[in-house]
Specification:
Layout: H1 3-16, H2 19-26, H3 30-44, E1 49-51, E2 56-58, H4 60-85, E3 91-97, H5 100-107, H6 111-117, E4 120-126, H7 133-136, E5 141-145, E6 154-161, E7 164-167, H8 169-175, E8 189-192, E9 203-208, E10 211-216, E11 219-223, H9 226-234, E12 239-242, H10 248-251, E13 256-257, E14 269-274, H11 282-297, E15 305-307
Parallel strand pairs: 3-4, 3-5, 8-11, 8-12
Antiparallel strand pairs: 1-2, 5-14, 6-14, 6-15, 7-12, 7-13, 9-10
Helix pairs in contact: 1-2, 1-3, 1-4, 2-3
Protein name: LysR substrate-binding domain-containing protein
Domain HTH lysR-type: 1-59
Keywords: DNA-binding, Transcription, Transcription regulation
Length: 316
């Protein structure tokens, strides 16, 4: 957590006289705000507040830090306002949490469009999808894969992953076509393993005519690196079961879809997470518009993703 964010916590606590009230103002949990103040006290090596069951007061040292914090934050707000309104342009820094696949295949190919519209914007990314980092890393926006946990954040659904089984033409020539999902048990399968999971995703599911077939595959490779899986599959190392990657890999023929007569149920959801009221901040609102449009433009044939209803993706 950066010091500016902690100074904001200090000012809100001092102004409201309550950790709980300050947490509501900042859209944080009381425990997160308490950790932030404790972290600031740890950095400064002295207490900022005297706490009793009845009242909360700044210490002498805390009052001095408060005075300087108000001055710093006022100057920063003025600077941000100047950046926003200078020549009618939007500027400033937007801190974004996003995993590498979404950054590489959805955001970065379209980033020039954002900077053409708003050349004063700076986008800083963190390789994370943990909602707790909205507080600890002071993120403005988070692209989250999976069901978002309960929180005070706004969660706007962009779409779902649309998985299928893929292999290179060379692999198919060497090992033959598949006629049924059960054939996968005799093939080299390249598995994705989520970093926080105990094991790889080794159950691949297929559907046809109302019948569902779940196959327990054996890994020839298990890795948390999705890009490595794509590289290995294109090089003929085996079969992947994946969603949400560059459709050009398929249109170029580097990978081909296996079992085309079977479909696969949608996998993970993809959400934009942001704080309530963030759309009133021009730099954040600009990035939210860009992210929604970038995802809507990604994979228009919905080969590797299913888009959410575009009517629900309007700016707040």
């Amino acid at each position: 957590m950066d010091r500016t964010h902690r100074l904001q916590m200090l000012v809100h606590v001092a102004n409201s006289g309550s950790f709980a009230a300050a947490a509501r103002l900042m859209d944080l949990t009381p425990s997160a705000l308490s950790r932030g103040i404790a972290g600031l006290e740890g950095e400064l090596k002295f207490r900022l507040f005297n706490r009793t069951t009845r009242e909360l007061k700044l210490t002498q040292e805390g009052a001095e830090v408060y005075r300087r914090a108000v001055d710093i934050l006022t100057r920063m707000a003025a600077l941000d306002k100047d950046l926003v309104h200078k020549q009618g342009r939007i500027g400033g820094v937007v801190r974004v949490g996003v995993q590498a696949p979404l950054a590489r295949h959805v955001l970065m190919p379209r980033l020039a469009r954002l900077h053409d519209l708003h050349p004063d914007l700076c986008i800083e990314t963190r390789l994370t999808q943990d909602p707790r980092d909205m507080q600890s890393e002071n993120l403005d926006v988070l692209l989250h894969v999976g069901a978002p946990p309960p929180s005070r954040l706004v969660a706007q659904r962009l779409g779902q992953g649309r998985p299928a089984a893929y292999a290179s033409p060379d692999y198919v020539r060497r090992f033959g076509e598949l006629s049924h999902p059960a054939d996968l048990v005799n093939h080299r399968c390249l598995l994705f393993r989520m970093p926080w999971a105990a094991g790889p995703l080794n159950h691949w599911t297929f559907e046809r005519d109302g019948h569902r077939e779940a196959v327990h595959v054996r890994p020839a490779l298990a890795t948390p690196d999705r890009e490595a899986l794509l590289v290995a599959a294109q090089a003929g190392a085996g079969i992947i079961y994946m969603a949400c990657f560059d459709p050009a890999v398929l249109s170029s023929g580097r990978l081909i879809r296996l079992l085309p007569q079977w479909s696969c149920p949608p996998s993970f959801d993809i959400h934009l997470l942001y704080r309530r009221g963030a759309v009133s901040v021009p730099r954040v609102a600009a990035f939210l518009r860009f992210a929604r449009e970038a995802f809507s433009d990604f994979d228009p044939q919905e080969i590797t993703v299913l888009h959410a209803d575009r009517a629900r993706m309007s700016v707040g």
